[in-house]
Amino acid sequence: MNMKTRPKVGMLLIGAKRFRELGQGTADGTYDERKLSEAERYLNRFGEFADIVYDGIVYEREDVERTVTRFFDERVDCVFAMYLSWAEDFTWIRFLREMPPVPIFFSSVVRDKLDITDTNDENQFIDFLSAGALVGVQEASGSFRRFDRPMCESFIGTLDEVAERFRIFAKAAHVRAQLRKTNLSLLSCYNEAMWATYVDPYNIFSKIGPEIHFLSVQELTDEISKVSDSFTDELTKSIADSYRMMPNVDYEKFKASVRASYAMEQIAAKANTDLLVLNDIDTVLFKYVGLRPGFTPTDKSIEMVTVPEGDIGGGLATYILQLLAGTNANFIEPFYIDHANRGFVAGHAGPNDYREAPENVVIARDERFAKTAWKYAGAPFAWYVFPAGMKTMLHMSEKNGVMKMVCTLVECLPTKHYLASYSHANFRHPTLAPEELFNRIIENGVTQHYGIVAGDVTAELEVLAKLCGFEFVCIK
Fold first, then answer.
1. What residues pair up with 471 in beta bridges, in sequence order?
2. Which terminal Cβ of the chain has fewer Cβ within 10 Å, N or C?
């Protein structure tokens, strides 16, 4: 996974073959010259947020064939398609027929102003022909709908409006493409206490894209035995020097947790894992490892997402948010409603990405398991308070073979560490009382797990859901 990559967009601009050479010697040049200038504006604007694959304006059959081949070879995430004016429709129909399935954003850009006053003037007459994008988009819409290709959207607006709408579409298409390349690892099994979180791996692979690998506790214990004492000491000291630490932390158990966290990352890396779903309350894990690894990610450069409790849906929600926002996401479980303060409290025990706000991290004893009989009972973890700010909150689970998304915006409030063993924070919806918020949530049938990420990516989530065939609900 690479959070910082940009969408790769194929640009299909269709011109009118019979207009191409008209306007020679006029002040603004031929139709073709005017359209080349127009195309340059789109390339520059869309190039602000995407890498553009473009082979020139399409006029001929050969242009279409070359463009389709290039888009396929380049594996574009989506295509921006537009008639530059009225145009013969054989090129567009050929493209729709020949281009393999790919998200298509079919659009028309409205000019900010028109200066056509007298088309007896040849220069203005060519401008009149050139400005006829409304004719073209209507003509093209018929074939666009008759082919009824999946993953398509249409939109008419000014360049600013089109660029913003297309930016959202392109980002969602890029995440769809990334999901199809994703490796998801489950260590080592579903959580047998929460059957509602189970998903069908075949559906995940065939309909969304991630390939699921099953890692074992035996692999983890073997890898732990390979991590040297000297490396463990060095890594533990580095983590200890970076964060505050509670005085009751057992340093030997601290080292054991760091060693296990690093070993877990190593076996995940061998499987080329982008998303690691750890069943961290599995008794087999506690029997043979003696703790739940508490310090992943152990390195600031690691982009792998790790989530607890064997919940693949919750893991996908967290992973998708991280891809869309380009920053670290977290895994939460809303605990209870704080009626008096019109909010709710949420967080989660176990692994949670703690790198966004190092000042919010405390190395603390795992109080939840401190009095158990496991070998490293109470082994510490990175106790994290989620940084304040507006967050997108997303749930994902499976219903009748279809993945569904339920999302909303919540404000994460400034919070002090007070829930021992749980990374956490206090939250509030911008407009809804918490009772109303969760009434609307449970109407859709969810489980208790969500991902959160800084910022508002609900528009991108809605487009992604359409492209992937998910059910989608946004609670506002």
1. 404
2. C
What pTM was estimated for this model as a whole?
A: 0.95
164: tokens are 């913003």
DSSP 385: B
* d(C-alpha 257, C-alpha 269), whole Å: 18
Domains of the chain: residue spans and CATH: 8-179 (3.40.50.10940), 183-475 (3.20.14)
According to DSSP, the β-strands at 244-245 and 361-364 are: parallel
Q: Which two tokens stand for residue 368?
A: 């939840």
Euclidean distance between CA atoms 310 and 284, whole angstroms: 13
- The span from the CA of 425 to the CA of 345, in Å, is 6
Which single residue is written with the structure tokens 């060519």?
126
Q: Which residues pair with 412 in a beta bridge?
A: 389, 427
**10-residue mean pLDDT series, the chain (476 residues):** 87 97 94 96 98 98 97 98 96 97 97 88 92 94 95 97 98 98 95 92 92 96 98 98 96 98 98 96 93 94 95 98 96 98 96 95 91 91 98 96 97 97 97 98 97 98 97 97
Please name every residue paired with 424 in a beta bridge, in sequence order, or none if there are none.
347, 385
Inter-residue contact 85 to 13 (CB < 8 Å): no
Q: E strand or H helix at 408, and its extent?
A: strand 402-413
CA dihedral sign, ordered 339, 453, 258, 243: negative
69-92 core/surface letters (b: 16 or more CB in 10 A; e: else): eebeeeebbbbbbbbbbbbbbebb
